Protein backbone atom coordinates (compact mmCIF):
# COMPACT_ATOMS: atom_id res chain seq x y z
CA UNK A 1 0.00 0.00 0.00
CA UNK A 2 2.39 2.65 -1.31
CA UNK A 3 -0.05 5.47 -0.49
CA UNK A 4 0.80 5.15 3.23
CA UNK A 5 4.55 5.46 2.72
CA UNK A 6 5.95 8.52 4.47
CA UNK A 7 2.89 9.10 6.65
CA UNK A 8 3.15 9.34 10.44
CA UNK A 9 1.28 7.31 13.04
CA UNK A 10 1.08 7.88 16.79
CA UNK A 11 0.28 4.67 18.70
CA UNK A 12 -0.30 4.32 22.44
CA UNK A 13 0.42 1.10 24.30
CA UNK A 14 2.92 0.25 21.58
CA UNK A 15 5.35 -1.76 23.70
CA UNK A 16 3.56 -5.08 23.41
CA UNK A 17 0.45 -6.88 22.24
CA UNK A 18 -1.96 -5.29 19.80
CA UNK A 19 -0.17 -1.93 19.79
CA UNK A 20 3.10 -3.60 18.81
CA UNK A 21 1.40 -5.67 16.11
CA UNK A 22 -0.23 -2.59 14.60
CA UNK A 23 3.06 -0.68 14.73
CA UNK A 24 4.95 -3.38 12.84
CA UNK A 25 2.23 -3.75 10.21
CA UNK A 26 2.26 -0.01 9.56
CA UNK A 27 6.08 0.02 9.50
CA UNK A 28 5.99 -2.59 6.74
CA UNK A 29 3.99 -0.09 4.66
CA UNK A 30 6.53 2.70 5.17
CA UNK A 31 4.67 4.57 7.93
CA UNK A 32 6.91 6.47 10.37
CA UNK A 33 6.00 5.87 13.99
CA UNK A 34 5.74 7.65 17.31
CA UNK A 35 5.40 4.83 19.83
CA UNK A 36 4.10 5.69 23.29
CA UNK A 37 3.98 3.49 26.37
CA UNK A 38 4.44 3.51 30.14
CA UNK A 39 7.57 1.36 30.00
CA UNK A 40 10.12 3.05 27.77
CA UNK A 41 12.22 -0.09 27.33
CA UNK A 42 9.30 -1.93 25.76
CA UNK A 43 8.50 0.79 23.24
CA UNK A 44 12.20 1.12 22.46
CA UNK A 45 12.25 -2.55 21.49
CA UNK A 46 9.23 -2.05 19.25
CA UNK A 47 10.93 0.99 17.72
CA UNK A 48 14.04 -1.04 16.94
CA UNK A 49 11.97 -3.69 15.17
CA UNK A 50 10.11 -1.03 13.20
CA UNK A 51 13.31 0.71 12.15
CA UNK A 52 14.55 -2.64 10.89
CA UNK A 53 11.75 -2.36 8.31
CA UNK A 54 13.13 0.91 6.98
CA UNK A 55 11.10 3.57 8.76
CA UNK A 56 11.82 6.12 11.44
CA UNK A 57 10.43 5.19 14.86
CA UNK A 58 10.45 7.34 17.98
CA UNK A 59 9.94 5.76 21.42
CA UNK A 60 8.17 7.96 23.97
CA UNK A 61 7.45 7.31 27.63
CA UNK A 62 3.82 8.17 28.29
CA UNK A 63 1.23 7.48 30.97
CA UNK A 64 -2.02 7.99 29.08
CA UNK A 65 -3.80 8.82 32.34
CA UNK A 66 -1.70 12.01 32.56
CA UNK A 67 -3.00 14.88 30.44
CA UNK A 68 0.44 16.50 30.34
CA UNK A 69 1.99 13.31 28.93
CA UNK A 70 -0.59 13.19 26.15
CA UNK A 71 0.04 16.83 25.27
CA UNK A 72 3.78 16.12 25.15
CA UNK A 73 3.56 13.08 22.86
CA UNK A 74 1.23 14.86 20.44
CA UNK A 75 3.49 17.91 20.33
CA UNK A 76 6.71 15.90 19.97
CA UNK A 77 5.24 13.71 17.25
CA UNK A 78 4.03 16.67 15.19
CA UNK A 79 7.31 18.50 15.64
CA UNK A 80 9.60 15.56 14.87
CA UNK A 81 7.66 14.24 11.87
CA UNK A 82 6.03 17.41 10.57
CA UNK A 83 2.47 16.26 11.30
CA UNK A 84 0.25 13.35 12.28
CA UNK A 85 -1.77 11.25 9.84
CA UNK A 86 -2.83 8.23 11.92
CA UNK A 87 -3.69 7.87 15.60
CA UNK A 88 -4.20 4.52 17.33
CA UNK A 89 -5.62 4.75 20.85
CA UNK A 90 -4.68 1.33 22.17
CA UNK A 91 -3.51 1.73 25.78
CA UNK A 92 -6.04 0.62 28.41
CA UNK A 93 -5.99 -0.46 32.05
CA UNK A 94 -8.55 -3.24 32.44
CA UNK A 95 -10.94 -3.18 35.43
CA UNK A 96 -12.21 -6.77 35.59
CA UNK A 97 -14.21 -8.41 38.36
CA UNK A 98 -17.63 -8.57 39.95
CA UNK A 99 -19.12 -5.13 40.55
CA UNK A 100 -18.82 -5.57 44.31
CA UNK A 101 -15.13 -6.39 43.91
CA UNK A 102 -13.95 -3.63 41.56
CA UNK A 103 -12.74 -0.61 43.53
CA UNK A 104 -13.52 2.97 42.62
CA UNK A 105 -9.80 3.41 41.98
CA UNK A 106 -9.65 0.52 39.49
CA UNK A 107 -12.78 1.71 37.67
CA UNK A 108 -11.42 5.26 37.50
CA UNK A 109 -8.09 3.98 36.18
CA UNK A 110 -9.97 2.14 33.43
CA UNK A 111 -11.90 5.27 32.52
CA UNK A 112 -8.89 7.58 32.62
CA UNK A 113 -6.69 5.27 30.54
CA UNK A 114 -9.45 4.40 28.08
CA UNK A 115 -12.19 6.84 27.05
CA UNK A 116 -10.73 9.91 28.75
CA UNK A 117 -7.28 9.39 27.21
CA UNK A 118 -8.91 8.69 23.85
CA UNK A 119 -11.01 11.86 24.16
CA UNK A 120 -7.98 13.96 25.03
CA UNK A 121 -5.63 12.58 22.40
CA UNK A 122 -8.18 12.74 19.60
CA UNK A 123 -8.65 16.45 20.29
CA UNK A 124 -4.90 17.01 20.44
CA UNK A 125 -4.19 15.42 17.05
CA UNK A 126 -7.23 16.80 15.24
CA UNK A 127 -5.64 20.14 14.23
CA UNK A 128 -2.54 18.35 12.94
CA UNK A 129 -4.65 16.01 10.83
CA UNK A 130 -6.81 18.84 9.54
CA UNK A 131 -3.67 20.72 8.50
CA UNK A 132 -2.60 17.69 6.43
CA UNK A 133 -5.98 17.43 4.72
CA UNK A 134 -7.33 14.61 6.89
CA UNK A 135 -6.33 11.49 8.75
CA UNK A 136 -7.50 8.28 10.37
CA UNK A 137 -8.12 7.61 14.05
CA UNK A 138 -8.47 4.02 15.25
CA UNK A 139 -9.77 3.50 18.80
CA UNK A 140 -9.65 0.15 20.57
CA UNK A 141 -13.08 -1.07 21.65
CA UNK A 142 -14.13 -4.51 22.86
CA UNK A 143 -16.97 -6.98 22.55
CA UNK A 144 -16.90 -7.10 26.38
CA UNK A 145 -19.56 -4.40 26.33
CA UNK A 146 -22.05 -6.64 24.50
CA UNK A 147 -21.31 -10.02 26.12
CA UNK A 148 -24.17 -12.45 26.62
CA UNK A 149 -23.00 -12.74 30.24
CA UNK A 150 -21.74 -9.43 31.64
CA UNK A 151 -20.73 -10.87 35.04
CA UNK A 152 -17.17 -9.68 35.88
CA UNK A 153 -17.06 -7.60 32.67
CA UNK A 154 -19.34 -4.72 33.65
CA UNK A 155 -16.70 -2.09 34.41
CA UNK A 156 -14.48 -3.01 31.48
CA UNK A 157 -17.45 -3.14 29.15
CA UNK A 158 -18.61 0.25 30.40
CA UNK A 159 -15.34 2.02 29.58
CA UNK A 160 -15.11 0.37 26.17
CA UNK A 161 -18.69 1.30 25.29
CA UNK A 162 -17.83 4.89 26.21
CA UNK A 163 -14.96 4.72 23.72
CA UNK A 164 -17.36 3.54 21.02
CA UNK A 165 -19.66 6.49 21.71
CA UNK A 166 -16.76 8.94 21.43
CA UNK A 167 -15.73 7.29 18.17
CA UNK A 168 -19.17 7.87 16.67
CA UNK A 169 -19.24 11.47 17.86
CA UNK A 170 -15.79 12.32 16.49
CA UNK A 171 -16.63 10.70 13.15
CA UNK A 172 -19.78 12.82 12.92
CA UNK A 173 -18.16 16.08 13.95
CA UNK A 174 -14.87 15.87 12.03
CA UNK A 175 -15.88 14.10 8.84
CA UNK A 176 -15.98 17.34 6.84
CA UNK A 177 -12.27 17.73 7.65
CA UNK A 178 -11.66 14.32 6.08
CA UNK A 179 -10.83 12.84 9.48
CA UNK A 180 -12.19 9.33 9.72
CA UNK A 181 -12.69 7.78 13.15
CA UNK A 182 -13.14 4.04 13.63
CA UNK A 183 -13.18 1.52 16.45
CA UNK A 184 -11.87 -2.03 16.29
CA UNK A 185 -12.81 -4.80 18.71
CA UNK A 186 -10.11 -7.46 18.42
CA UNK A 187 -9.43 -10.84 19.95
CA UNK A 188 -5.66 -11.10 19.72
CA UNK A 189 -2.68 -12.95 21.12
CA UNK A 190 -1.91 -10.21 23.63
CA UNK A 191 -0.11 -10.96 26.91
CA UNK A 192 -3.32 -10.21 28.81
CA UNK A 193 -5.45 -12.64 26.82
CA UNK A 194 -2.78 -15.32 26.96
CA UNK A 195 -2.68 -14.96 30.76
CA UNK A 196 -6.47 -15.23 30.93
CA UNK A 197 -6.49 -18.39 28.79
CA UNK A 198 -3.79 -20.03 30.92
CA UNK A 199 -5.55 -19.16 34.18
CA UNK A 200 -9.12 -19.91 33.09
CA UNK A 201 -8.82 -23.07 30.98
CA UNK A 202 -12.46 -24.19 31.20
CA UNK A 203 -13.86 -20.74 30.39
CA UNK A 204 -11.25 -20.36 27.64
CA UNK A 205 -12.31 -23.65 26.07
CA UNK A 206 -15.92 -22.48 26.03
CA UNK A 207 -14.77 -19.14 24.66
CA UNK A 208 -12.99 -20.72 21.69
CA UNK A 209 -16.10 -22.72 20.83
CA UNK A 210 -17.96 -19.43 20.28
CA UNK A 211 -15.48 -18.22 17.63
CA UNK A 212 -16.44 -19.47 14.15
CA UNK A 213 -12.82 -19.36 12.95
CA UNK A 214 -11.75 -21.25 16.07
CA UNK A 215 -8.77 -19.11 17.02
CA UNK A 216 -7.72 -15.70 18.29
CA UNK A 217 -6.10 -13.19 15.99
CA UNK A 218 -2.40 -12.86 15.31
CA UNK A 219 -1.10 -9.50 16.43
CA UNK A 220 0.50 -8.27 13.22
CA UNK A 221 -0.94 -10.49 10.52
CA UNK A 222 -4.60 -10.28 11.56
CA UNK A 223 -5.02 -7.13 13.66
CA UNK A 224 -2.18 -4.99 12.34
CA UNK A 225 -2.91 -5.71 8.70
CA UNK A 226 -6.58 -4.88 9.24
CA UNK A 227 -5.60 -1.47 10.61
CA UNK A 228 -3.38 -0.94 7.56
CA UNK A 229 -6.39 -1.61 5.35
CA UNK A 230 -8.59 0.74 7.37
CA UNK A 231 -6.06 3.54 6.94
CA UNK A 232 -5.88 3.13 3.17
CA UNK A 233 -7.92 4.76 0.42
CA UNK A 234 -9.85 1.59 -0.44
CA UNK A 235 -11.87 2.08 2.75
CA UNK A 236 -11.93 5.88 2.68
CA UNK A 237 -15.75 5.95 2.79
CA UNK A 238 -15.85 4.07 6.09
CA UNK A 239 -16.11 6.04 9.32
CA UNK A 240 -17.90 5.88 12.67
CA UNK A 241 -18.07 2.08 12.63
CA UNK A 242 -16.94 -0.59 15.06
CA UNK A 243 -15.14 -3.37 13.22
CA UNK A 244 -15.08 -6.70 15.14
CA UNK A 245 -11.76 -8.39 14.45
CA UNK A 246 -12.72 -11.50 16.39
CA UNK A 247 -13.13 -14.39 14.01
CA UNK A 248 -16.89 -13.84 13.73
CA UNK A 249 -17.78 -14.12 17.41
CA UNK A 250 -19.43 -10.83 18.35
CA UNK A 251 -22.66 -9.33 17.00
CA UNK A 252 -22.57 -5.54 17.15
CA UNK A 253 -25.92 -5.11 15.35
Automatic annotation (TrEMBL):
Matching Pfam families: adh_short_C2 (PF13561)
Keyword vocabulary terms for this entry: Oxidoreductase
Record keyword Oxidoreductase present: yes
Reactions catalysed according to its record: 2,5-dichlorocyclohexa-2,5-dien-1,4-diol + NAD(+) = 2,5-dichlorohydroquinone + NADH + H(+)
GO molecular function ontology, one term from the record: oxidoreductase activity
Stated family: Belongs to the short-chain dehydrogenases/reductases (SDR) family.
Protein name: NAD(P)-dependent dehydrogenase (Short-subunit alcohol dehydrogenase family)
Organism name: Sphingobium jiangsuense
